[in-house]
Amino acid sequence: MNSTYELPLDEANYSFGFLDEFAKREVRRSILKAIAIPGYQTPYASREMPMGRGFGTGGLQLTLSLIGTNDTLKVIDQGSDDSVNAVNLRHFVELTCPGVDTTEQTSEATLIQSRHRIPEVQLTEEQVLVLQVPYPDPLVVVEPSEARRKIMHGEGDYSRLLTKLYEDIVQFDEITISHRYPTRINGHYVIDPSPIPRYDIPRLHRSKALILLGAGREKKIYAVPPYSVAEPLVFDDVPFRIEDFRDEHGCRRPCCRCGAMDSFLDELIADDGSKTWQCSDSDYCNQRLAEQTHKVSA
Ligand SMILES: [Zn+2]
What we know:
Structural class: alpha/beta
CATH class of the largest domain: Alpha Beta
Shape: globular
CATH topology of the largest domain: Rossmann fold
Bound molecules: zinc ion
Distance between the termini: 63 Å
Largest sheet: 7 strands, mixed
CATH architecture of the largest domain: 3-Layer(aba) Sandwich
Number of domains: 2
């Protein structure tokens, strides 16, 4: 008996992109609907993937449904191409999509799958960004019933979400949400923009690239189409603020590798308790380092 279960994945005879053509068509139809209604959580029949839900299966199904042999794929996790999740997802696509190129350079990629970050360099109209989403609905923190949440979304009723933000201000003097900041798309639907940091929210606004968000476990796809208006929920007298990475003297910390003063930084804590800060976007950091080395040697 020659069951595919007995074969390693690279020898198993899977169709291009792992998913069957019917499944990919269904995902693409849902993507079109999501683009037509910016910010609307479009349900789709999320398939079982050979990895646990919560490890990017939603993003992966979007990627596999869109990718073709003329595409170049970049996969990042927390801004890094080398983290375990990113390496595994990239390896899976390489195995199941023969002929597809992969890259670590943001500017070379036509399709970028990401968890937790939007790349530092500005994306173009030729690129599609796929974000892996754990919790698609921003209203889940204030309303447990999905049926009621659907009505609230339909009516654009986000008063309870605003109340939640207001409670933060009363308690902490500012809105304390660091990730998943609720963001209104094209003046109607409020989305949970995956767990990207606040720092990345302004990049959603009028993005040249199509941004697709996929939640595999929750079976939802939604989109921020190119040039959409994306506004974080705020109050008139409490402006939206992004992370500024200032030290105790009020100066912005530079990246300890490349010295960047304009990137999102990860805080690294050494064994002795000392802290350093480094660009979370590894490609951005490497490119800057390469440029500096080039200048020194020239
Ligand atoms: Zn850096």
